[in-house]
Amino acid sequence: MTQLTDVAAATRRREPSDVPQQRIGVLDVARGIAILGTLATNIWIFTDPGGIIGYLQRPLPSLTGGLEQTVQTITRQLANGKFLGMLTLMFGIGLELQRRSARRRGRPWPGRYPWRASLLFLDGLLHYLLVVEFDILMGYAVTGAVVAVVLSSPRSQRIWLWTAASLHMLLLSALTVALRLWGTAGDPSKADAVTLYTDGSWLEQVGQRLEWFPLYRAAAVVILPLSVATFLVGGKLMQPGCLSSAGGRCDAE
Predict the structure, then answer these.
(1) How far apart are CA 66 and CA 46, in angstroms?
(2) Helices (H), 14-112
(3) Which tens digits make up the pLDDT trace of 126-153?
(4) Is residue 194 part of a domain?
(5) Is residue 157 part of a domain?
(6) How many domains does the chain fold into?
(7) CA-to-CA distance for 133 and 213, rounded, in angstroms?
(8) For residue 61, is the peptide bond before it cis, meaning its omega torsion is within 30 degrees of 0?
């Protein structure tokens, strides 16, 4: 009888963090698909001799038509925007998993997460300067820092989600109208930007990224509302029934 009492007392004292959590296998598969799909999107930029500027100016620079252009057009249409959005959802799901883990362990939230976001921002900054202009990690770091706070309140999540989604639609509409009315003004420096990747050095590329920092980073600012909304949607996918193998009704709104 005494032994049974001791076992019961030990069970009551057991911390929530000691309880093993079942791994959600579908998330591992989804992450892999999102990463490979993002590579399928970016591979065209990596192989363009003019870099990102050349890719934007000449979407299919080396093709003159026929089957090759048709295949490339279809594959780009299938990949562009889809898997990057999926990857953004994965970031939101991961953030919600971290919040739940902190709650199980009795730790405050967001706690030390802002430091993790700061490291991600630094990683993105180095990636931008040393590797490629259109880095997404800096944007994810800022988005994560914002959403980490919002996740603490279900009511705030709904408000932020719909506000961010509406703001994104307004920004996108305004940009569409502006481009329709005024078009893209000719910039003589664009030609230099394209030849930089064929004739220039790596240090010259780094120098251009420093010089054009506001222009190159403007895209990350414009998509920030969409990223916030997508992170929050990812967090809501962790509601009961959405990703559970046991099935059931998904309660995410």
Answers:
(1) 23
(2) 25-47, 51-57, 66-79, 82-104
(3) 999 998 888 889 999 999 999 999 998 8
(4) yes
(5) yes
(6) 1
(7) 9
(8) no
Sign of CA dihedral 88, 92, 94, 95: positive
Query: Which tens digits make up the pLDDT trace of 22-43?
Result: 677 788 888 899 999 888 888 8
CA-closest candidate to residue 60, choices 43, 73, 78: 73
Token output for 47: 């192989």
Q: What is the rounded distance in angstroms from the CA atom of residue 253 to the CA atom of residue 186?
A: 45
Residue 203 lies in a domain: yes
DSSP string, 230-247: HHHHHHHTTSTTTS-TT-
What domain range is 194 assigned to? Answer: 25-236
Is residue 1 in some structural domain? no
Q: What are phi and psi of 127, to 5 degrees?
A: -60, -40
CA 84 from chain centre, in angstroms, equals 7
Instruction: Write the burial class of residue 65 (CB in 10 Å: 0-12 exposed, 13-18 middle, 19+ buried).
Output: exposed
Q: What is the pTM of this model?
A: 0.79
Neighbour count for residue 50 (Cβ, 10 Å):
20
- Residue in 152, 149, 91, 171 with CA at minimum distance from that of residue 124: 91
Question: Length of the chain in residues, anyone?
Answer: 253
